[in-house]
Amino acid sequence: MMHERLATFVSGLDKIDAEDTETLKDAFMNEVIENGGTYDPPDGAGRSYFEISLHDVTATGASELLAIRNWRIAATARLLNPDGRDVEADGFITMHPPCDLLTDTGVST
Questions:
Q1: How far is Cα 69 from Cα 77, in angstroms, rounded to an integer?
Q2: Sign for the pseudo-dihedral over CA of 18, 51, 4, 94
Q3: What is the CA radius of gyration of the chain?
Q4: Which of 37, 55, 90, 107 could join 32 via S-S bond, C-beta 3.0 to 4.6 A?
Q5: Which stretch of DSSP H or E encloses residue 99?
């Protein structure tokens, strides 16, 4: 169920005009309120970044809009790779061509 709500929210974000940052911020705030996430600005007691935690996806940023951007990237990655099994320790997904492509080059050895 939560996965469905994540997909719905992420696809809804794509409908917001990129220049309308106030609507984007409001969308996040409403989603956090309705679904039990957190939307934490810098606290002045050591944490100097924004943190958004929503639908089991957490991201931070030096500004509110960077935290939103980073959350969207992390949420999209979660939707595309829900198990996280293809992500390596460096955070990248390495793709290799299928073995048959390597042997069917027409080059004789």
A1: 13
A2: positive
A3: 19
A4: 37
A5: helix 99-103
Distance CA 45, CA 42 (A): 8
Residue 91 pLDDT:
59
Say what the pTM is: 0.73
The CB density around residue 47, as the number of other CB atoms within 10 Å, is 12
In whole angstroms, give the CA distance from residue 82 to residue 75.
Answer: 10
Q: Taking 80 as the threshold, does the pLDDT of residue 92 lie above it? A: no
Average pLDDT over residues 29-39: 93
φ, ψ of residue 51 to 5 degrees: the values are -135, 130
For the chain, first and last CA: distance in Å?
54
* pLDDT above 70 (res 1): no
